[in-house]
Amino acid sequence: MNRSGRAERQSKETTISVDVGLDGGKIAVQTGLPFFDHLLEAFAKHGRFGLLVNAKGDLEIDAHHTVEDVGIVLGQALRAALGDRRGIERTGHAYMPMDEALVRAAFDLSGRAYLAWRVSVPGVYTPTIDLTVLEGFWKALCDHLGANLHVEALHGRDYHHVCEASFKACGRALRAATRRDGTTKVASTKGMLDG
Predict the structure, then answer these.
(1) What range defines the domain where residue 87 resides?
(2) Rounded to whole angstroms, how far apart are CA atoms 108 and 29?
(3) Helix locations, 83-191, DSSP H
(4) Number of domains the chain is built from
(5) What CATH number should be reported for the domain holding residue 48?
(6) What does the pLDDT average to over 96-105?
(7) Per the domain annotation, does 194 fall within a domain?
(8) Residue 51 burial class via C-beta count within 10 angstroms: exposed 0-12, middle 13-18, buried 19 and up
(9) The pLDDT value given to residue 45
(10) pLDDT, tens only, 46-81
């Protein structure tokens, strides 16, 4: 079974395409936001999935539209790759340390969208991105993937470490949740996943 998905979005604010391969593949990310590219690459690398992202957005305004819309399209591509979600673990969690930072993430690919984001990132600007927009990225991804995600920074002072550890933790949690369980069944007492 080919577990890959593609999605595209074009609006007056952004033009985005995303390809995902849940079982591996090339990683190449271009959003015009170098730190965001770095975070997405870490997400894919630790998730062990292929990820191609090409995004052009109205960065002359700010990063918000690009970051959020990448979340929308990535969520749609992941949803396509998962299909009916039969034969996967469905849930996964991970802890990720990075120097003084420690982040915990847990995914449930239930088909229902919910984000609990307990990552205190002040309005710190890297050269091109206000880090407070990262919560909007994960919210958009959850909404369009149909996933429940809890992310909590347990420790951390350095914004780079906290942000990177959160993306790595989410990648590892997603990898665990999408792992094949050796059956063709849906991991639900209802016999279906809502969506």
Answers:
(1) 4-178
(2) 25
(3) 134-145, 159-178
(4) 1
(5) 3.30.230.40
(6) 97
(7) no
(8) buried
(9) 98
(10) 999 999 999 999 999 889 999 999 999 999 999 999
Q: Is residue 183 part of a domain?
A: no
Residue type, 101: A
CA angle 126, 71, 36 (to 5 degrees): 20
Q: Does some domain include residue 189? A: no
Give the separation between CA 143 and CA 108, rounded to whole angstroms.
13
Tens digits of residue pLDDT in 136-173: 999 999 999 999 999 999 999 898 999 999 999 999 99
Instruction: Determine if the pTM surpasses 0.90.
Output: yes
Length of the chain: 195
Q: Which residue has better confidence, 161 or 192?
A: 161
What are 156's two structure tokens? 């951390």
In a domain, 193, yes or no: no
- Nearest Cα neighbor of 132 from 119, 144, 116, 145 is 119
DSSP class of residue 84? T
Query: Which sign does the torsion angle of CA 111, 131, 30, 106 carry?
Result: negative
Task: Check if the beta carbon of residue 74 is closer than 8 Å to that of residue 172.
Answer: no
pLDDT at 1: 64
